[in-house]
Design goal:
Length: 301
């Protein structure tokens, strides 16, 4: 049987930029083993498989890396929605999707122009946990192999925020400091962050390469190589909760944009809205452009 696939560059309007996600829009009949093998064959960041669901108009998403299955995230949802909207030849100005995944449901909307998808947005609701206790500034600087002067201490504060993942969020004073930061495993092991189940560190700054972005993001941590620049869609809900906790967000709907990577590499731009209602739950909408860079078929006997 032939299975069609599309390599979709997410949160960019340029081919071979952003985050590359492979989408199999009709994955009926593929076993877990076959999906893993296909993800290994594609050898991309993530591969998303769209399966029919028992509920009408609520397709099920499953996501695999070359190493195994992972949770559905904003990047993979945007990629799936973009491809399904691309394959839908109707003249509707917007396509709406409700996707089923292992933890529940996630909504996506795709704006279209002349039957072509131009902007995709996913909506999620999380219940974040905020912890103001962090390692000292000296410990954080040592952990990032930076100086104390590189850590922002006035406009923003360091904080721990947990959604699906527990993050240590650290503001830096410059884009140069963000570029130079390296994860020091030995220093990490000497801090309270290692014992408080922090999984990843988000370092950010307000200095950006593009004047259209509000923040530049980079994720580092014990499971992230120092020379890599992973996708940041997963940390957006936690960062939105951070802005609420740090009193940088007014009550009501707030908007900001995030830049990840650089123009000479795979740069991503994420547009974010969140509803600050001073409640336990926080609704976050993450959107951006996407472009299909390659497509083809794989024959599975």
């Amino acid at each position: 049987m032939d299975y069609q696939y599309f390599t979709t560059d997410v949160f960019t309007n340029k081919k071979f930029s952003g985050a590359p996600i492979v989408v199999f829009p009709k994955a009926t009949g593929l076993s877990d083993r076959k999906m893993l093998q296909l993800a290994q064959e594609m050898n991309h960041l993530q591969t998303v498989f769209v399966h029919p669901s028992e509920e009408v108009n609520k397709p099920r998403l499953r996501v695999f890396t070359p190493h195994g299955e992972v949770p559905v995230g904003s990047h993979t949802t945007v990629a799936a929605a973009h491809v399904l909207a691309k394959l839908d030849a109707t003249a509707a100005e917007c396509d709406a999707f409700v996707f089923e995944h292992n933890s529940g449901y996630i909504e996506a909307h795709v704006d279209k122009k002349q039957q072509e998808p131009v902007f995709s947005q996913v909506s999620l609701t999380v219940q974040p946990f905020v912890d103001h206790y962090t390692p000292t500034i000296a410990e954080i600087a040592d952990m990032l192999m930076l100086t104390i002067n590189d850590i922002e201490q006035l406009k923003y504060k360091s904080m721990q925020v947990a959604t699906d993942t527990r993050y240590l969020i650290v503001p830096l004073r410059s884009l140069d400091a963000l570029k130079q930061a390296k994860f020091n495993l030995a220093a990490w092991g000497r801090t309270s962050a290692a014992s408080s189940l922090v999984e990843e560190i988000l370092i950010f700054c307000v200095e950006t390469e593009l004047n259209t972005a509000d923040f530049h993001f980079r994720l580092i941590g014990p499971e992230i190589a120092n020379n890599s620049n992973p996708a940041v869609g997963g940390v957006i809900p936690a960062f939105s909760a951070y802005l609420c906790a740090d009193k940088k967000a007014r009550k009501g709907t707030n908007m900001y944009s995030v830049e990840r990577g650089y123009s000479d590499s795979r740069q991503s731009i994420l547009n974010v809205e969140f509803d600050h209602k001073e409640e336990e739950q926080l609704t976050v909408r993450i959107g951006g452009e996407a472009v299909i860079s390659t497509h083809g078929e794989v024959n599975i006997n």
